């Protein structure tokens, strides 16, 4: 990744011109702790609706370009969800190592970006970070409010009562993805009972999407994780899958009746009504896009494919619920935590917001034949633009 006159050149060669983005970014921050070996990025894309909200991902190859793309997505996700947050994202280059070192990386990054916290940025969990890391982050700067997705036992006593963390580990994002799939399927005339589903990525989002989709009557027939893929012609044995989730074993260890391990690339060829990519950035790409056989893609992960590929699939007749519509459950949960809501109220809010957003986007796309991301972005941008007109200045 390199820069050229306000342009970020992606590792795959395509170019993102951040200077042409009329909505942001407001801040692009790179931090470096040479003593520790920690490098990180913070991108605050837009704060017209409120402080920038977005998680911290820890990966060895996380880049400024990736963080920028994710921060922009968060602007639209929060606007479309109808919550008073702007868009932001953070990334720490994490080569791997013991928990003691990981804690030091988190603490160093938190202190480095302290000037932006609360007013411009509220952190949260993402890839390779969870409730434990969020508590480390908050404790490093001594403020409970700087981050969401904290442990349920980690609380703050205020004059109005006690506020406690709502960890993403309880599944708000996967819960929302399942409801987005249900609403979109209903709009398309797909009966959820017996609908065949494939899920790529079986971490927090994928496992909870599996649970809720199964409870709705859908039949999950293909699951992939970082180690491989498994096909189950007649669906997976729920008891076996639950034991595997509890033990954190790979899906390729599944030994239920009628299941078999398939090549990772063959996952994309499994014919289904609904596909849920819930793994990493650009997991759907030029190498596998032609293999996909589904009527509906519900993007559980962030930026699961580049926009030209997404448009190409839509033109092939595949309805797509964009990432910032489908997987907004996590940030809605974050807002609920920020406001001091209970877990029960949080889940009700997630369902309400996800259903409203998915209905608005999918129904208009089906009616007008317009690309769903275009529809969703128009709605989100109108809300950001209205808020921008009301604010006295970008930097107060």
Briefly, what is this?
With 396 residues, the chain is an alpha/beta fold. 38% of the residues lie in helices and 20% in strands.
Please give the structural blueprint:
Elements: E1 2-4, E2 7-9, E3 15-17, E4 27-33, E5 38-46, E6 52-53, E7 56-59, H1 64-81, E8 86-93, H2 99-112, E9 121-122, H3 131-141, E10 155-158, E11 161-164, H4 172-188, E12 196-200, H5 204-215, E13 219-225, E14 228-232, H6 238-247, E15 259-262, E16 274-277, E17 296-298, H7 307-315, E18 319-321, H8 323-326, H9 329-338, H10 343-368, H11 372-390
Parallel strand pairs: 6-8, 6-9, 7-8, 12-13, 12-16, 16-17, 17-18
Antiparallel strand pairs: 1-2, 2-3, 4-5, 5-8, 10-11, 13-14, 14-15
Helix pairs in contact: 1-11, 2-3, 4-5, 4-9, 4-10, 9-10, 10-11
């Amino acid at each position: 990744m390199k820069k050229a006159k306000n342009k970020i050149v992606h590792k795959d060669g395509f170019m993102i011109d951040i200077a042409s983005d009329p909505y942001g970014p407001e801040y692009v921050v790179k931090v470096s702790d040479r003593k520790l070996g920690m490098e990180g990025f913070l991108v605050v894309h837009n704060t017209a609706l409120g402080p920038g909200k977005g998680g911290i991902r820890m990966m060895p190859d996380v880049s400024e370009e990736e963080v920028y793309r994710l921060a922009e997505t968060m602007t639209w996700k929060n606007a479309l969800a109808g919550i008073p947050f702007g868009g932001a994202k953070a990334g720490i280059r994490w080569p791997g190592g013991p928990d003691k070192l990981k804690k030091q990386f988190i603490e160093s990054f938190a202190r480095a970006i302290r000037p932006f916290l609360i007013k411009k940025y509220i952190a949260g969990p993402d890839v390779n970070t969870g409730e434990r890391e969020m508590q480390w982050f908050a404790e490093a700067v001594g403020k409970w409010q700087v981050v969401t997705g904290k442990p349920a036992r980690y609380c703050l006593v205020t004059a109005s009562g006690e506020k406690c963390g709502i960890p993403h580990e309880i599944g708000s994002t996967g819960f929302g993805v399942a409801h987005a799939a249900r609403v979109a399927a209903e709009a398309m005339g797909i009966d959820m009972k017996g609908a065949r589903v494939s899920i790529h990525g079986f971490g927090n989002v994928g496992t909870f999407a599996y649970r809720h989709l199964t409870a709705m009557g859908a039949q999950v027939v293909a699951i992939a994780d970082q180690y491989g893929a498994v096909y189950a012609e007649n669906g997976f044995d729920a008891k076996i899958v639950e034991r595997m989730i509890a033990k954190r074993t790979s899906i390729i260890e599944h030994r239920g009746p009628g299941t078999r391990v398939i090549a990772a690339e063959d996952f994309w060829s499994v014919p289904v009504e609904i596909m849920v990519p819930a793994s990493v950035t650009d997991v759907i790409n030029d190498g596998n896009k032609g293999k996909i056989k589904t009527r509906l893609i519900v993007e559980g992960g962030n930026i699961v494919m580049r926009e030209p590929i997404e448009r190409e699939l839509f033109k092939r007749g595949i309805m797509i619920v964009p990432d910032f519509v489908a997987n907004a459950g996590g940030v809605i949960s974050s807002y609920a935590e920020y406001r001091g809501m209970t877990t029960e109220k949080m889940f009700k809010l997630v369902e309400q917001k996800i259903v409203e957003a998915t209905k608005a986007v999918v129904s208009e796309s089906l009616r007008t034949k317009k690309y769903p991301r275009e529809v969703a972005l128009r709605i989100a941008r109108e809300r950001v633009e209205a808020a921008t007109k009301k604010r006295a200045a970008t930097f107060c």
